[in-house]
């Protein structure tokens, strides 16, 4: 049976590579990749880069790969100082990759090949207009990691800018695992992290328009007000949010016959995409969070139109409901808010100031930079223990800090914690995070006695639950519960006719399967209500 499964996986991979080859064979522009290699047998990343490029090198007629030594004259000409470094079509662009495109970065490489191979940036009209006004040059650095599912979005933002304005924008994608010294120099202890001419312009993945705006301004921008003149899309149902609830709702709504569109400003999959391991999701004893997300997204894309990287900036309830995003306007008969939740903050002094400088909310994204270093994992639930185990097996010296004397995590996770001798600070609260430029220590308070002590640490990872993302709901007058969740009835209807909710924004059990079930329920309610609107029945 195992051999049969492996054969099936190989066949699936072969089919995928054939599909990719057919797509790349349609490229209209020649893409030349120069791989600068150190020649050091001990350089693991050199070997990984060589292996990956060997796979891609023969996929398309207009794609060529050439391996060069660091002492080749072209290294100095193109500003290459370390290996491995990949230089892309230097006759047209100024794009370099410092590292090996493996893991999540493999997705970045594939998308890059399409952008470069067709010579089209793919930027939105809004971004193009802003970039046309760019005066002067921008040297962009984006720090990424093979384990970070958020990183491809930010890396591609930078690549698109470099293709749209090759005269003004140069890009370096820097793998923190292959270049830890550069990560330390720029204090990039959380990825993705972006700089323009060494000025910090982004911590975390940004929407394309906000990235361009930040790059131009040499500072991180958080709000983008679009100048909408273009496309208007009419649909039966618009879903805001691309997590398990939103994706499942998209499948069920379309199967019920509703024209369905979904918008997601960030990464599809939500919190699941950054979960190292998902245990006991039906059909999987154990599965990587990102792998599960990929399955969900692929399924949903067969049914609904998905608009990723678009932020909703305004909602106007009515008949129809009008929703403005950063790129277009939707008019919909119904709206589903599946906006999920965000990581809850400690609220401790130093937390915000040192965020991205040793304070992290994603072990999957940032863990590799802390190999061999000491960190504190704050929390006592499933997420905290799972991430502590993930860091431990990665080679991080991790200690769990929990404010109570027992953990809330499931028994098998607690047993794994004990079996691996991961120390736990019981009845302990991190009351302050200290450090000048990066995390150096944490003040630990005993919750029983109030006594404090200082503990040296290189990082503080925080997993203490989530807060609902309900700002859009609140702005349009949707009633919230005292705890800040969306208030809805048994059919996921909010107090505003035609507007529904599903998933973690509603509260309840924070489980993937629960969110998916709520998405399915909401979709069926919407289908039935559009046939026979309950708000019209209520008037009779």
Protein architecture, described:
With 540 residues, this protein is α/β, with parallel strands linked by helices. Helix content is 33%, strand content 25%. The chain is globular and about 75 Å long. It starts with a helix and ends with a helix. Mean pLDDT is 91; it is low at 1-11.
Q: Would you spell out the secondary-structure blueprint of this structure?
A:
Elements: H1 2-24, E1 31-37, H2 44-57, E2 63-69, H3 73-77, E3 85-88, E4 95-98, H4 104-118, H5 125-132, E5 138-144, H6 151-164, E6 169-175, H7 180-185, E7 193-196, E8 199-203, H8 208-217, E9 232-240, H9 244-255, E10 260-264, E11 278-281, E12 284-287, H10 289-301, E13 305-308, E14 312-316, E15 321-325, E16 329-337, E17 341-343, E18 359-360, H11 363-366, E19 374-378, H12 382-394, E20 397-401, H13 411-419, E21 424-425, E22 428-434, E23 441-446, E24 452-456, E25 459-462, E26 466-468, H14 471-475, E27 499-501, H15 512-531, H16 534-539
Parallel strand pairs: 1-2, 4-6, 5-6, 9-10, 9-16, 10-13, 16-27, 18-25, 19-20, 19-25, 20-21
Antiparallel strand pairs: 1-3, 3-4, 5-7, 7-8, 11-12, 14-15, 15-16, 17-26, 22-23, 23-24
Helix pairs in contact: 4-6, 5-8, 9-10, 9-15, 12-13
